[in-house]
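Re: folding output
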Amino acid sequence: MKEQKIRKNEHFSTPGSGPGLGHRPGSGSGYEPDPRTESDPQPESDPQPERNGVVLLIEDNFDILDANRQILSIDGYTVLTASTLAEAREHLAKTAPDVIVLDISLPDGDGREFLLEIRESCSAPVLFLTAEDKPEERLRGLKAGGNDYITKPYDIHEFRARVRNFHSLLHSAKKAASDYAVGSLKLDTVAQQAFLSGGDIGLSPKEFAMLHLFVRNEDKVLSTEYLYEKAWGQTMYGDDYPVKKTVSRLRTKLEESEFIISTHRGSGYCFFRE
């Protein structure tokens, strides 16, 4: 199959609705298909992203912007578009995108300078998509904080794959950061669930908060006051019954495991493995 590439100033059909990208204005009232792509077979479907993410496209060529928006929307992403850096700033003030696709030459500034400006507040991976194809220009883009670089004209399948890879890596990193595993016990801090040997042990929000504290401080004695302040979000005055009751319920739910919550009279509680 011939490579499908997007060039500046080309006109496009809707992705998936015709022989592919690359239609040009024809004579008369309609569009005539580009003979280079008319006989090409349909591309194979690319795998869908693991879950929807947000992609911000910053591009001043309307045809390229619209084609990429349609393609990524078909792939399951929420797509935000900006044709100027001012519009991009408005999006970033309201939304934290998972991936940014950034042109360099924009009507109101240089994409590399813009990236330097937002890098402290935005950690999303950035894919430069630009006509600047000299090695020194690539290097400038990467030094400005770009994570990858594609030059125009470009292969649409490679573009989709690079966006998908960025999103998958980000999703995997977030997932890894949200999980704690200790022996047969695993905590998912996003869903606020705890699993013993793969089975959900059904914790309440306060039980999960306290177990999370214990897991992060294994083999350390945590005071009753500390546990209350962290799990309830306020200072404990007097009665320690809520902590005692929650520890008792945790012990019951962990009794078939290797984990022990011991009482240290006058000091607090210690979570450890037998």
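--- second protein (sequence, then structure) ---
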Amino acid sequence: MARSVIGCLTSACSRRAVIWWSRAFACDIFFHGRSRLKRDVRRLNTMRHVKTEKQLGQALREDAERIEIEGDLARQVIRIRATGKVSWAVCIACCSVAITLIVLGPTPKKPAILAPAAGILGLPAAIAAISIGFAAGGVAALTKLRRYREISRTSETLVLERR
């Protein structure tokens, strides 16, 4: 008799455990918590329309699934994304130093630091790259931007999708 009662209790507990575990895995709560689930759902449902460097930096920080870039910023992003690997290494170093100097405060050598990046990307694209990096919180956002895949391009818009 005791054996049947214990068996009944363990089967009921195991059923509850199975239900709980299946819910936890289905909702991705067990590993990552609710905030990640909400962020992922928000990211999948939206396409971000961007007109300024600050908005683009925010979209990159939030890992937006699709980004539609409009205006002059689209042309500058095309230049940033079209840079080769070796040239990009020089640009990323210059941009990281420039962002650090912006954070530290006013210094007289900002234009000199920007010169190599401006030579490779062009002055408007270099300024846009530094602004995007500053708005997103670091130079890693520019590397994220280069990882996005181009969906469509017109004269005034650029649509990017995350790989």
